[in-house]
Amino acid sequence: MVSAAVVQREERAGLELVWCSLVSAFLIIHSTHACRALYAQLQDLESSQWYLHEDYGRLLLEQSTWASHHRVEKVARADLGMQAPDLAQFKVVVQ
Question: Nearest-5° angle of CA 73, CA 76, CA 81?
Fold first, then answer.
């Protein structure tokens, strides 16, 4: 015969096992949710990075266009009235 104390101890152990299983299940659910949320955030950040990289490439192209030698010379002549000096205007300075 099994005493009442042994049965009670086994029931208590069974309840503790069920409790631990439930806690473990909820922790797994929480960690899975957190992982998915972080992965979604990572995808958003990678998408933003891609767009920023694309914009940076466009800005570099625009900068090189604005700073091209031909354009600078054209603006200097048309807007600023500048011109290249004649050879007679050159002076050589000797130290």
Answer: 135
Q: Which two tokens stand for residue 77?
A: 């002549």
Which amino acid appears at position 14 of this protein?
G
Angle at 44 between CA 35 and CA 42, to 5 degrees: 35
For residue 83, give every residue at least 6 positions away whose Cβ sits within 8 Å of its Cβ, in sequence order, or none.
77
pLDDT tens digits, one per residue of 17-38: 999 999 999 999 999 999 999 9
Q: Judge if pTM exceeds 0.85.
A: no
Residues contacting residue 77 through CB under 8 Å, at least 6 positions apart: 83
Please name the residue ranges forming H helices in the chain. Answer: 4-66, 69-78
